[in-house]
Amino acid sequence: MIPNGKTVTTNQDEHLISIGLLYDIVQTGYGKVSPLLKDMIFDVTGLYEGRWGTHEACQVGYHNLGHAIDVALLTARMISGWNKLPGPDRPQINEEFCLCALAAALFHDSGYIKEKGDKEGRGGKFSFSHEVRSMAIASKYLAMKGWPAATTDLVPRIIALTEFHKKLVLENHFDKKMEEIIGRMVATADLVAQMADVDYIQRINCLYEELKEAYKYEGEDKLAAQGIRIFHSAREMIDGTIDFYENFVMPRLQQLGRMDQYLISFFNDGRNPYLENIAANLSSKMVDKKVRWRRLGDILEELGLVKAEQIQKALARQRKQQKKKLRKNQESSDISFRERILAWMEDSQFSYKCLGDILMDMKVISSPTLRKGLLFQMLPVNLVQKLTRDELLFLLQISLLLQNIGRGPWLFGQILEMTNELLDCESSCILLANPDTQEMLIAIPTGPNKDFLDGRTIPADKGLAGWVFSHGRPAVVSNVKQDERFDMEVDRNNKPAFETRSLLAVPLHINGELIGVMEVLNKSDDNFTEHDMDILTILANLIAVSLDNIFRLQELYSGNEDV
């Protein structure tokens, strides 16, 4: 039973605002707002609020009416963005297909709503079966309301694509290409709207309650046998947010054809606010040990501001420029300071540009966008809140010392000595990779064996430092003897009379290129913390920028034509 009244009783003003925005998009795109759409939004609101005679009100806290409306609005924005970019390979999405997409978006999670009289649980028990229930509710509703028969068949097939617990299969799923396009958009909207929710991290507690009910209802062993991961707390889910985003959300968005790219043309200012919100949501987890180092290209791609192929193209251009000087052969003594400054401002003295510079030259990003990416790369916002006054003072002192790095490498040694003192560890060093020999040079070592270690090499694929370099990920180990990555032979050969007990190492990048590793050894209590890793990562960022500046200044004053 569906109510016949026309007054929406929801008290949630944000829903009404979103619905108004949705109507504006449809009105602009098609010259009118179909009565079918108005009736459907009213009826779906009634379904979630318990005004259908067949269903209880929605009782789950995560997959609620707000999420359904958010997905519909996001879908409409992608459709509008698509239609703003006409072309022979991009035919317009007509009103009929738009309505089908919006219907699928509005009904896609309705399967969480219990039927009338069902007193068991709150609806979370349907977590792994709600798509089938949603498809049935949508199909029955559309047929009752007199929608075309083709629509009552298409909408459930679109909803099926939002079943994220199973492998995505698009082949032979739709009869027409345009059906597949809007299906991809709805599935994309479901993921992006969820991750971009301003309260995403907080609402994971609601999601966990839904899953807990499903575990009890279906049985954890049965679900695990189906390959479904079982979470044991909301904290476990929150801590796994980065993994979820990197290993599921991003690959699934790629499989769906990155339909979220059409949000950029919708907003018409080179931005994708949804992915900016995702980045903000993840900022508290940006320094997770698996992704603690944020490459500029990765950040810009994650923000939805560039595509992977654009980054690869820019990197190829960068590598090409590294092999060719752009200036004439001049002796540095013949160039006045004023001329050097002017040449630097005109960017004509350097033989190659950074990745961000190239992306700006390609008109892929703007300078404010690059600034945002660099800040995300250098210092995740939440990290500042965790630093103590003394730690901030330490970083300020390091930054000031690095302004004088041209005075010689001894200054790096002083900075590492200061790091030892701050992190309460015995020694530290920077290891620089040599791709020709597949080795890493131990540079600027500190500690008891610094004279012996200086200038020695280790295999680039051996030991914990080799693992960090090979994987581009940090490592923190309290007892190296219990870590299979640690190579005792490498340690003995390079550190006689020195026993490595604990180790913290982070990768060192310049312009997206992995050039080595920075490590500290033997904390006094052998308990390197995540916060220690934060400090070392920031320091590695600062040193990487300084090394890059040194390399570029060497190039500026060099008289050689070839790199």
**General form:** elongated
Residues in β-strands, percent:
5-15%
The averaged pLDDT comes out at 80
The CATH architecture of the largest domain: Orthogonal Bundle
Distance between the termini: 76 Å
Helix share of residues? 40-55%
CATH fold naming of the largest domain = Catalytic domain of cyclic nucleotide phosphodiesterase 4b2b
Please count the helical segments: 25
Total DSSP E strands? 6
Structural class estimated from helices and strands: alpha+beta
Strand order of the largest sheet: 3-2-1-6-5-4
For the record, what CATH class of the largest domain applies? Mainly Alpha
How many domains is the backbone divided into?
3
In this structure, how is the largest beta sheet organized?
6 strands, antiparallel
The unreliable regions are 1-11, 284-294, 325-352, 559-563
Radius of gyration: 28 Å
What is the topology?
Layout lengths: L12 H18 L4 H15 L15 H19 L11 H13 L22 H15 L4 H12 L16 H20 L3 H19 L1 H6 L8 H6 L1 H15 L6 H6 L5 H10 L13 H7 L5 H15 L14 H9 L9 H7 L5 H12 L2 H6 L2 H14 L7 H14 L1 E10 L4 E8 L3 H4 L3 E3 L3 H9 L3 E3 L10 H7 L8 E8 L2 E11 L6 H28 L6
Antiparallel strand pairs: 1-2, 1-6, 2-3, 4-5, 5-6
Helix pairs in contact: 1-3, 2-4, 3-4, 3-7, 4-6, 4-7, 5-6, 6-7, 7-11, 7-13, 14-18, 20-21, 20-25
Provide structural commentary.
The protein has 563 residues and is an alpha+beta fold. It has three domains: 13-290, Catalytic domain of cyclic nucleotide phosphodiesterase 4b2b; 310-364, no CATH class; 387-557, Beta-Lactamase. Helices cover 54% and strands 8% of the residues. The protein contains 25 helices and six strands. The protein has helices at residues 13-30, 35-49, 65-83, 95-107, 130-144, 149-160, 177-196, 200-218, 220-225, 234-239, 241-255, 262-267, 273-282, 296-302, 308-322, 337-345, 355-361, 367-378, 381-386, 389-402, 410-423, 450-453, 463-471, 488-494, 530-557, and strands at 425-434, 439-446, 457-459, 475-477, 503-510, 513-523. A six-stranded antiparallel β-sheet has the order 3-2-1-6-5-4, with helices on both faces. The model is unreliable at 1-11, 284-294, 325-352 and 559-563 (pLDDT under 50).
